[in-house]
Amino acid sequence: MMAGEMLVTRLNLADPAQRDAADGFVMAHPQGTPFHRPAWLTGVERGTGNRAHMLAAVAPSGEIAGLLPLHHVRSALFGQALVSSGFAVDGGILASDPAAVPALAAACQGMARDGGIASVEIRGGPAPGEGWTLHEGSHVGFARPIAADDEAELLAVPRKHRAELRKALANGALRVEIGRDARHRRAHYRVYSESVRNLGTPVFPARLFREVLAAFGEDADILVVHEGERPVSAVLTLYHQGRVMPFWGGGIADARRLRSNELMYYRLMGHGRARGMRVFDFGRSRTGSGQAAWKRSFGFDPAPLSYHGWSATGERRDVNPDSPRHQRRIDLWKKLPLPVANLIGPFIARGLG
């Protein structure tokens, strides 16, 4: 594919040289995220079955000038789309040359048309150009610097929430464990699956978490809070260029009483500091949600996020949990026994993207 003097090609992520070239570009780019990395693309593909693609804009010099990571997300319930990046809160076009942006956007549109794919969803990055719709106001992100030490971190939390955190710190029954092996994955899945069921959301396949951990290696781990031997809160975290990025986390019903989520994120900040991280990126939340309010009470200020969409037909797939058409399904899902939710949830969730 040619766009002016910019060649756009699909990289072969199974080729170590091409994979390393793409990863090097992402790691060197100031706007690069874990969701641009080949590790994310391949981990999600192996964990969900949604095929990964990496479009690269190549300058006349032969150097990569831009990347667009994509997943072809398919679902009998929700339709299909090219998503940058699938199962992520960020992604989009990553370019060192402005000319790469429209070239990659056009190539992506062509890929969708050729594949009979109804729409494209780009989460973050620069505006792709004409013909794309800007979607903003639905989500906000939260990030702030990690404090110099534990006491400074505690004082960075507003007073009311700090009092709750102190109660958790004083609870001798709570202990924290960090790792990547099978027992950490089991504890995380047990907690996370209950957490999302209680929110009315199908849980992702356990394989997704396993494959992402394997793909990222030491750049990902799991923190679990136990009450005695019972896991009560857990989070899978990514580490990228000085940023701690808790991604898949939650707590069981008792977490609120125990304040174990407060303890989990506070200890994760300290763990990130020990790893040399500088920023705690709390991820995105829906604007006006209880989750957004909870993050603000932890001392984080919201920043609006912008997404971009394109459709050959003008229609977008509807995967918004706030959509009226999904409310009855959500209410029913909350009532499912956890074993049933965990049995059928992954078949639905792998098509959400």
Automatic annotation (TrEMBL):
Pfam families: Acetyltransf_6. This is BioF2-like acetyltransferase domain-containing protein. It comes from Sphingobium indicum (strain DSM 16413 / CCM 7287 / MTCC 6362 / UT26 / NBRC 101211 / UT26S) (Sphingobium japonicum). Residues 159-296 form the BioF2-like acetyltransferase domain. InterPro entries: Acyl_CoA_acyltransferase (IPR016181), BioF2-like_GNAT_dom (IPR038740), PEP-CTERM_FemAB-rel (IPR017469), PG_Glycine_Bridge_Synth (IPR050644).
